[in-house]
């Protein structure tokens, strides 16, 4: 990490001298912003390619009030994690998949995007530079948040003249306040998350503010999050605000296909592969909401959420309950394998892990 070794950090010490761990109460981390030491920044103009980025001390950024991202929502975000192994190594999980997804989203939102190599290299730099903020094994992970935004000024509705790719990181524990307790979901019928031809299939920032109201409504009624139905028929399962959904019946696992309105989760994709390796029959298909009544198990997947069991889903005042929690459940088996690979307990035979 040459930039860091030659440059003193904000705290006046070289990276070689910094403590192994930052001063964090590792037993009590949730999913919140903890300012770390460094962020990564790379800029380019419209019609150009990103070239060189750099690590800067973590802090506020300056942006034009007329920036495309502020006025017209020209922005994407990603999420990936670094885990610390028992013996202190840092492991990244499939950051190339986030790079590919960001490139797809950038194409949809008329933005230049970093190459896969640039993206992965930047993620490696940010994880190394903030290593002391990565929780000890078993206590959580370093959540890495890449952003791509139209940062240049624009008034007419058109692509921004300048773009910023930025990555920051924060140590995190469980996403939901429920911890590892099963989620209580509620089928949202008033608000839609996405519609065909829209941006639901990419990680556009514009997919997230509009669901806040549905989440707030659900939380005020004691639910963890909201399950959306397709906006055309109001019949088929789509996804949860923060994660994808899977339904288990015997040896069959089903999840909605990502045909433009559903986010193509990296955890979703990985869990499908792990489940097939375990001998499950996995289908990507339209799942009518009425089918939930017959499900043995339901679980959610996402980078932030991990693999989380769903204890109940309420639809039209009917509460459906599912098997949860025991070590032999499908959800537990898939969770253990995924986390095992991510944390280096299970050998990675798939080329998913990048060790730093
Ligand atoms: C993630 O799982 O990384 C996400 O981006 C979801 C977000 C709502 C935290």
TrEMBL record:
The keyword Amino-acid biosynthesis applies. Pathway: Amino-acid biosynthesis; L-valine biosynthesis; L-valine from pyruvate: step 4/4; Amino-acid biosynthesis; L-leucine biosynthesis; L-leucine from 3-methyl-2-oxobutanoate: step 4/4; Amino-acid biosynthesis; L-isoleucine biosynthesis; L-isoleucine from 2-oxobutanoate: step 4/4. GO terms for biological process: amino acid biosynthetic process; branched-chain amino acid biosynthetic process. The keyword Transcription regulation does not apply. The modification N6-(pyridoxal phosphate)lysine is found at residue 203. It comes from the Eukaryota. GO terms for cellular component: cytoplasm. Its EC number is 2.6.1.42. Its cofactor is pyridoxal 5'-phosphate. Keywords: Amino-acid biosynthesis, Aminotransferase, Branched-chain amino acid biosynthesis, Pyridoxal phosphate, Transferase, Transit peptide. InterPro entries: Aminotrans_IV, Aminotrans_IV_CS, Aminotransferase-like, B_amino_transII, BCAT-like_C, BCAT-like_N, BCAT_family. It is an enzyme of class 2 (transferase). It catalyses: L-isoleucine + 2-oxoglutarate = (S)-3-methyl-2-oxopentanoate + L-glutamate; L-valine + 2-oxoglutarate = 3-methyl-2-oxobutanoate + L-glutamate; L-leucine + 2-oxoglutarate = 4-methyl-2-oxopentanoate + L-glutamate. GO terms for molecular function: L-isoleucine-2-oxoglutarate transaminase activity; L-leucine-2-oxoglutarate transaminase activity; L-valine-2-oxoglutarate transaminase activity. Belongs to the class-IV pyridoxal-phosphate-dependent aminotransferase family. This is Branched-chain-amino-acid aminotransferase.
